[in-house]
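Backbones bend. To wit:
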Amino acid sequence: MAPGLGLAYPWGRDVRRVTPLVVTMENPNYSVVEIDGPEAEALRAGVPPMDKGRGRSAKQFTWVLLLRAHRAAGCLASLVSVAWALPSAVSKRFRRAAAAGEGPGHGRGWLLYRFIKGFLALSLLALAVELAAYWNGWHFQRPNLTVPELHVPEVEEIQGWAHLAYLAWMSFRADYIRRPIEFLSKACILLFVVQSLDRLILCLGCFWIKLKKIKPRIEGDPFRKGSGYLHPMVLVQIPMCNEKEVYEQSISAVCQLDWPRDKFLIQVLDDSSDESIQMLIKAEVSKWSQQGVNIVYRHRVLRTGYKAGNLKAAMSCDYVKNYEFVAIFDADFQPSPDFLKKTIPHFEGNPELGLVQARWSFVNKDENLLTRLQNINLCFHFEVEQQVNGAFLNFFGFNGTAGVWRVQALEESGGWLERTTVEDMDIAVRAHLNGWKFIFLNDVKVLCELPESYEAYRKQQYRWHSGPMHLFRLCLPDIITAKVHNPISPKLAPVMGIKVPFLGVWINILFYEHLFISMQISSWKKANLILLFFLLRKLVLPFYSFTLFCVILPLTMFVPEAELPVWVICYVPVCMSFLNILPSPRSFPFIVPYLLFENTMSVTKFNAILSGLFKLGSSYEWIVTKKSGRSSELDLFSAAEKDKKGTTPPQFHKQLSEKGGLIEINVRKEQHEKAPHDAKKANKIYKKELALSLLLLTAATRSLLTAQGIHFYFLLFQGVSFLVVGLDLIGEQIS
């Protein structure tokens, strides 16, 4: 130990200086640090440490300040680095977009894009006029709520023809433009109130379910018959199309389902157009078939109708009539081994039950900001919407996967139809009109993936919003003219008898329970489908979100006579975001990004709704959502380890025996062939979002002239949000 130097500290306390001694053990994973000093001796003697003096507190305070300064400097350095790299990234993306000729053109969304461009041009012109008027001293005075009439200057106050033209413009917008804007804003506010009531009722229903612990339950062991077990025949279908990243994990999970081998069959429905992917899937099917699993591979020559056509062709097989239930899993879904044992028993003793739907669980919900925001929406969808509708109405939209159908319900409802891209919602609506009931199992979860790139998420949302509107056009006449249908009333015993005197004769009237209920709620079913299921929950939210915050709000900046109240800017988006985020309380720190991102996505959703309602653009187009192939949360770490090892994977071979021959699949060759195509992938720019960003930022600049604080901040942050999304800076970044 080095001797003390006898130096006194400025605050007057003499401290003994020591040199720490580090003793390293033979095991490199452990080390012991021994510090010699008065406090160490006191600890050895079992005496509590002495109270630290004022000098030590001052030193600790200094270290805390230094630590916080270091953190602040780190955050500042990160922001500076991002700000430094952002212009370069933006310029590269614009150069790439210009070289590739990207843009709406005459494709999907070009009409909305032209509208936004025209609106932006008018806004810039109006901003120039307002700036010129402000520079000349023609200040606009905010209208008095008690005296809304516009003050017109006297003739001697007019300062030339430009001032006269500006006054004419003010008079025109006050007389002719203000009223339509106010009417449209009031209509949007009314829609917001109605939907808020709907969301609030759903949240209260969810709270009631949790409070009373309401959920579907299985009584006893329904498959036990005497001394043995009698399991029903189950068909499991895995539709897929060019999904090289996830086929292996989904087939593996389904083949490990805990069910008697002779009681279920797996159909791998491959619609892949890539022959190399077909060979890979055949190899995986052959591997499990050799292990004794009843699994078959099907590939259509004529791939029409997308997923609906694929499922329809599979259900047309002769052996399907031997199966009572069919479970469907998309290619990225991985059910747990006990999935069938948790779902199939609910059908036993419940002949009216047509569908059992399980909940989705996401392996990559914390991958990036985009996946976190998606998780908020889907948590509300499953936890609130589907659970409440399943518990109280026995109806909700089938999610297309992670569900089990009664084959009889599918057949009596018309089977899979190829008329729309939301075949799952189509069959659910038709089955509901035919009297079948659905239940939702919130505690049965199936692993799947969320889109990690904005491009994939955008295409998915476009299909999810154009498809329901297209279906609404097609099935609205069927809903209106639907008659009460009871698929199994002949099997039900009468539950009561009532005698009514008529013409001196007692007539015994038998009421069947199901028929009685169906007659009572048939009109309610139609109203629920049209008003709530389709219009309110599929159409209203994107409509008023886009109209109110992307059209009316910027417009009121240039027509200040029709100013939106502050509570509309504050409470409308905050209330909707708060209700949506309730089922996922861990996501509350992301409430502001979620609010801004949902308003940003309203452009894509509104465009999709118009396409579906009026058959514009590509309303009947199916683009497979890109998957990353994460089988569990641990894959996040394994993927990083693979990146560290290098980009050249080891060469390996898969073999399968087919017709006595040996087919060898060289995966390295396939990856080399695909490398040029993958190298062309890059982040894109989205012109509609960029145009709206400029529009909102222009409106924010105009709001400064009238000192509208809350309007300015909302427009500023929403414009920045559109800018981030338009430059594809959210989600997966491809270098």
Notes: The chain has a mean pLDDT of 78. Residues 236 and 368 are 33 Å apart (CA to CA). The first strand starts at residue 21 and ends at 24. Residues 161-212 form the longest helix (52 residues).
